[in-house]
Amino acid sequence: MGENAGSLEPRMMEPELRNNGSSQSEEQPASGQKSVKCSVRKKKSLRARYAYGVIFLLTNIIAWLFRDYGERILPVLPYSRACGAEERECYHTMGVLRVSLGCFIFFFLMFVMTCNTRKLHEVRNAWHSGWWALKFILLLISFVIPFFIPTDYIQLYGELARVGAGVFLILQLISVIEFITWWNNYWMSDEKNKSSCSIGLFMSTVFYIASVCGIAVMYALYASKTSCSLNIFFISWTGVLLIVMMVISLHSRVNRGLLSSGIMASYIVFLCWTAIRSEPGSEKCSPQKQESGHGGWSTIVGFVIALCAIVIATFSTGIDSQTFQFRKNGAQLLEDDVPYSYGFFHLVFSLGAMYFAMLFISWNLGSLTRKWSIDVGWASTWVKIVNEWFAATIYLWKLIFPVLKETKVMNHEDSTEEV
Questions:
Q1: What is the per-residue pLDDT across 51-95, written as a single tens digit (0 to 9) for each?
Q2: What span, in angstroms and rounded, lies between the C-alpha atoms of 175 and 272?
Q3: Is this entry keyworded Transmembrane helix (predicted)?
Q4: Could you tell me how far CA 165 lies from the centroid of its own chain?
Q5: Most C-beta atoms within 10 A of its C-beta, which of 21, 151, 161, 170?
C-alpha cells in the first residue's frame, strides 16, 4: 500500500503541474493583449489632441470672418431677436464674442465630461478620443446657441472673458517659466559633463546678446524721439528687469547660472516688443501704419503668425498639466493611465476661447478693430506690459523663494537647538 501510494503521488501532481503551466501560458497572452489595447488607446488619445487643436484653429478663423467679413459672407442670418435690427449685433465685436462663447461652451462641456479621467479603459476616455460624429453635432449646437442669446448677456460674457483671458495668461506664463527652468536644469545640471556646460554657457551668451540687441533696436525704432516718453519708460524698465534677473541668478545664495535668466530676458524683451507693437496707429511713436483696410502682405503674414501663435500657446499650455499639480511625486505612469489630464486640457481650451476673443476685439468691448489686425490698442498694450512685469515677478519669486524657505528652516532649527 505504501508503494502504491508513493507511486500515485507523482501521477496526481502531474495534472496539477500541467494546469499551472497552461494557466501561466494563458496569462501571458492576456497581459500582452492588454498592453496592446492600452498602447492603441494611448495613441488614439494623443492623436485626439491635434483634432481639438484643429477645431480651435477653425474657431479662430470663423471669429475673424465674423469680425471682418461677416456682412458679406452671411448677409442674412437666421431671424433672431438677439441679432437686433438688420442683424448688426451678430457681426464685428458681438460676432466675435458669440463665436467665442460657442467655443467656450463646447470645451467647457468636454471639461465637465472628461474631468478626473484616470484610466484608458474608462468610457470617458473613449468619449475624449472618439465619437467624433456626435461631438461634431455638439459643436454645431454650441455655436448656434449664442446667436439666440440677447446682446446684454453677450456683453456680460465679454466682461467675464476678460477675467478668463487673464487666467489663461497666468497659466501660460507659469508653463513658460517651468519650461525655461527644465531647459536650464537639462543643460546645466551635469557638472562633470564639460560639453553640456559649455553648450549651456554658449546658449546663455546668445540669449543675453539677443536681449541687448532687442532693446537697442526698440530704442532706435520706437523711442528715438524725446516725446516718446512712454516707450522710453517701457524699454528702460525692461532693461532694468534684465539686470535684476542676472544679478539675482548669479548671487551666491541662488546660484542658478545665466541660462535660465538669459532665456527669460529674451522672453520679456519679446513681450515688451509686442506691447509697443500693439499701440494704436494714431500715435506718433506707434509702429502701426495709419491705413484703412489691410496694410499689405506684411500685415497679412503678421496676422497669420499671430493666429498660429494663439493656437500653439493654447495647445502647449493645455498638455502641460504636470506643471500645475499641487502634489508632485516621483511615481511613474502605469500602463493603463491616461497620458495627460483631459479635464485640464479642455479647461485651458475653454479659457483660450476667451483669450482669442479679447485679442480679436483688442480687449475693448465698445470699439471696432481694423481689418487684418489682432490685439491693437492701448488696452492691449497695457495688458501685455502688465503681463511682462508679472512674468518677471514670477520668475524672480521662483529664484528667491527656495533661499527664503531654506533660511526659515535654518532659523527654526537654530531656535530649536537653543531651546
A1: 999 999 999 999 888 888 877 766 655 556 667 655 567 778 888
A2: 19
A3: yes
A4: 11
A5: 161
Measured CA to CA in angstroms, residue 380 lies from 57, 165, 360, 365 at distances of 21, 12, 10, 12
Structure-block grid coordinates of residue 407: 533660511
Instruction: Kindly list the domain boundaries of the chain, sorted by start residue.
Output: 39-325+336-418
The one-letter amino acid code at 164 reads G
HEC profile of the chain: CHHHHHHHHHHHHHHHHHHHHHHHHHHHHHHHHHHHHHHHHHHHHHHHHHHHHHHHHHHHHHHHHHHHCHHHHCCCCCCCHHHCHHHHHHCHHHHHHHHHHHHHHHHHHHHHHHCCCCECCCHHHHHHHCCHHHHHHHHHHHHHHHHHCCHHHHHHHHHHHHHHHHHHHHHHHHHHHHHHHHHHHHHHCCCCCHHHHHHHHHHHHHHHHHHHHHHHHHHHHHCCCCCCHHHHHHHHHHHHHHHHHHHHHHCCCCCCCCHHHHHHHHHHHHHHHHHHHCCCCCCCCCCCCCCCCCCCHHHHHHHHHHHHHHHHHHHHHHCCHHHHCCCCCCCCCCCCECCCCHHHHHHHHHHHHHHHHHHHCCCCCCCCCCCCCCCCCHHHHHHHHHHHHHHHHHHHHHHHHHHHHHHHHHHHHHHHHHC
Distance in angstroms (rounded) separating the CA atoms of residues 390 and 240: 14
- Find where cell 458679406 sits: 72
All cell numbers assigned to 260: 535660465
Return the C-alpha cell found at 319. Answer: 498638455
Nine cell digits for residue 125: 476616455
Please give the biggest Cα pair distance in the chain: 116
CB 241 within 8 A of CB 268: yes
The pair phi, psi for residue 48, each rounded to 5°, is: -65, -30
Q: What is the pLDDT of residues 91-145, one digit of tens each?
A: 788 888 999 999 999 999 999 999 888 888 888 888 999 899 999 999 999 998 9
Burial of 97 (0-12, 13-18, 19+ CB in 10 A): buried
